[in-house]
Amino acid sequence: MANLEVEYCGVKFKNPIVTASGTFGFGYEYNEYVSLNEYGGFGAKGLTRQPRGGNKAPRIAETPSGILNSVGLQNPGVEVFADVIMPDLAEKFDTNVIANMSGNTIEEYAEMAEILSDTDVAVIEMNISCPNVKHGGLAFGTNAAVVEELTKEVKKKCKKPLVVKLSPNVTSVTDIAKAAEAGGADGVSLINTLLGMRIDINTRRPILANNTGGLSGPAVKPVAVRMVHEVYNAVKIPIIGMGGVMSGDDVIEFMIAGARLVALGTGMFVKPDLILDVKRDILAYMDRFGIEDINDIVGTLELN
Amino acid sequence: MKKTYNCKLIRKEELCPGIFDFEIECPEMAQAAKTGQFLHITCGGSTFLRRPISICDTTDTTLRFCFQVKGEGTKELSLREVGDMIDVMGPLGHGFETVPGEKTVVIGGGIGTFPLLKLARETDSAVFLGFRTKELVVMEDDFKAASGNVTVCTDDGTYGYNGFAIAAMGEYLLENKVDRIFCCGPTPMLKAVKQIAEYRDIPCQLSLEQRMGCGIGACLTCVCETKDEGMGKYKQVCSCGPVFDSKEVVL
Ligand SMILES: Cc1cc2nc3c(=O)[nH]c(=O)nc-3n(C[C@H](O)[C@H](O)[C@H](O)COP(=O)(O)OP(=O)(O)OC[C@H]3O[C@@H](n4cnc5c(N)ncnc54)[C@H](O)[C@@H]3O)c2cc1C
Ligand SMILES: Cc1cc2nc3c(=O)[nH]c(=O)nc-3n(C[C@H](O)[C@H](O)[C@H](O)COP(=O)(O)O)c2cc1C
Ligand code: FES
Fold this sequence. Notes:
The structure holds two protein chains of two kinds. Chain A is an alpha/beta fold. Chain A has helices spanning 28-31, 78-92, 106-117, 138-141, 144-157, 173-182, 221-234, 248-257, 267-270, 274-288; strands at 6-8, 11-13, 17-19, 41-43, 60-63, 66-69, 96-101, 123-127, 162-165, 187-190, 194-197, 199-200, 205-206, 212-216, 239-242, 259-264. In chain A, strands 3-16-15-10-9-8-7-4 form an eight-stranded parallel beta sheet, with helices on one face. Chain A has a four-stranded antiparallel beta sheet with strand order 5-6-14-11, with no helix packed on it. In chain A, strands 1-2 form a two-stranded antiparallel sheet. The longest helix of chain B is centred in the last third of the chain and has 13 residues, at 187-199. The A-B interface holds A 22-25, 29-30, 32-35, 45, 51-54, 56-67, 69, 71, 74-77, 80, 217-218, 266, 268-273 and B 1-4, 42, 46-50, 89, 210-225, 229-234, 239. The structure holds flavin-adenine dinucleotide, flavin mononucleotide (FMN) and FE2/S2 (inorganic) cluster. Flavin mononucleotide (FMN) binds at residues 20-23, 45-46, 69, 71, 73, 100, 127, 130, 165, 192-193, 216-217, 220, 242-245, 265-267 of chain A. FE2/S2 (inorganic) cluster is lined by residues 212-215, 217-222, 236, 238 of chain B.
C-alpha cells in the first residue's frame, strides 16, 4: 500500500492535501460534500484580532481560468474561533486544522498567536500578504526586514508550528522566505493571490466594489510552481504549495517543485469534491512510477 | 452526502429570442428542491466558475430552469442540445418560506419571474408579472395554469396592464388585505416592493442576486448588506439567501 502520510513541522498529516485559507470557510460547508477527515488537514478562514465585516460586494469577478476576489477578511474574530469554532471542530473531526491570522500591528499578530496556541489547532499560518485590506496585510509581506522582525516577535508567543504565508506581489519571494526563516518560522506557505483588476467597459468602472482584488485559480499556477521551486532552493523549512490546483497531477507538480503539503483552493468552487479526484490521481501516479512513499517525490525536480 | 450531478437535458425551448427554457433529469435534486432555491451550473466553453440559475419548477424526476443569455456562460449553456449532459450542483440556498392558508402576493420582473412559478402554484397568491414590452412576455400560460389571479404588465403598455407591475400591485393592495409578499426581480423593483411592504407593514421576502464563487457559503464572495454591524454586516446570498426577509437586508 502506497504511503501518503507526511510530516510537516513535526505534525503528522495523513495525506499531503490541505485547503487554502478563505476558500473553505471553517470546513462545515464542504464537509457536506466530502468528509473533512479525507483531507490531511484544512486551512480555516483568515482571522483578525477583532471581528471584521469585510468589503462591499461585488467581491468576485471571473477572469480567464481564474477569479479575482476582494472579500477583505470577513471573519468572526480570533476569540470566537478559539472559544467556539475550534473546540467544535476538534470534537467532530479527526483532521489537522491550520489556523490563519492577519494583523494590523506586530503586537496584534503576537496576541493572536498566543490565543491560538491554547487551542487544538495543529499549525498557525501567519498571513502577511492579504492584498484586500488597507492596513497591515500586504504591507508586512513585502519588506524582508519587517518580516524577520515580525516572525521573531510572534515566535516568542507562539507554541505551535508557525508558517509564514508569502505574497507573490514582491520583487524577490526568496528574500522574504529567507527573512521568515531567519526570524524563526517553522515553515512557509505560498502563494497568496496576485493583485489584479477587471474593468467593465460599458460602465468604465472596476467590476469589484473594492476596485482591485486577488487573482487565484489555474491562471496563477505556473507563477506559484516557479515560486515554490525558488523558495525550496532558498530555505530549509518545509513548504505548503498552493495556487490553481485542479487535479492530482497539479498536486504532484507542486510536490516535485518542493512542496511537502499542497492546498486546494479556488478549484473547489468548480469541483466541491475535488479532494476525491486528487487522491485517486495521486495514487495512480505513484502506481505508474512505482513510488511507494509520497515523500520521495518532494523536491525531486531536475532542471534542464 | 451532497454531490454534483451530471444531468441529461431532456427538453429545450427558446421562449423568445435569447431566453431559454431547459428541463433536466435528476430525481434526487428534483425531490429535494424547494421553491426559491437555485442550481449552480458549469456552462463550459472558456468559462471557469459555475453560474447560479433559479429552479423554476420541478416534477418527481425533472427540474426546469429558464435563463436569459447575458454573457459567455449563458451563451455556452444555450448551445446545449437535448441529450447532452450538464454538470449541476444543487439544490442550493434558502428559498421562500410559505405559510399554509395565507393570502399572498407574488411579484416578479423580467428574468426574476422564472423562480416564481412553483411558488405561484404552491400558494394562494395574486401574481403580478412585469416585462419591458410585449415581445418579452414569457410563461404567461404556465403562470395562468398555476394561479387563478395573474396580471401581466408591460412597462410600455404594449400588452396587459399598462405600466409597472409595482403599480398594479399597489392598486391591488388598496382593496385587498394580504398576509405576505414574495418578490424576485431587478433591484429597482426589489427596492420599491420592500418600501411598500414596510410602509404597509406586510411581511415580505425578496430573492436577491449576487456574483458567486462556491455557491455553498464557504468563500464569502456573494454577500449582501444587512442591518447588523460587525461580522454579521454581510451575509452570503448563496446560503443565507437568495431569499431574505425584506427587513433584514439593505438594498
Ligand atoms: C441566486 C441566483 C439565481 C439566478 N437565477 C437566474 C435565472 O433563473 N435565470 C436567469 O436568466 N438568470 C438568473 N440569475 C442570473 C445569472 O446567474 C447570470 O445572468 C449569469 O451568471 C450570467 O453569466 P454569463 O456568463 O452569461 O455573464 P457574464 O457577465 O459573462 O458573467 C461573468 C461572471 O459574472 C457573474 N454574473 C454576471 N451577472 C450576474 C448576475 N446577475 N447574478 C449573479 N452573477 C452574475 C457570472 O456568474 C460570472 O461569474 C441568477 C442569479 C442568482 C445569483
Ligand atoms: C475567496 C478567497 C478568500 C481568501 N481568503 C484568504 C484569507 O483569509 N487568508 C489567506 O491567507 N489567504 C486567503 N486567500 C488566498 C488563498 O488561501 C490562496 O493562497 C490562493 O487563493 C491561491 O490558491 P488557489 O488558486 O488554489 O485558490 C483567499 C482566496 C480566495 C479565492
Ligand atoms: S458563493 Fe461562496 S459564499 Fe456564497
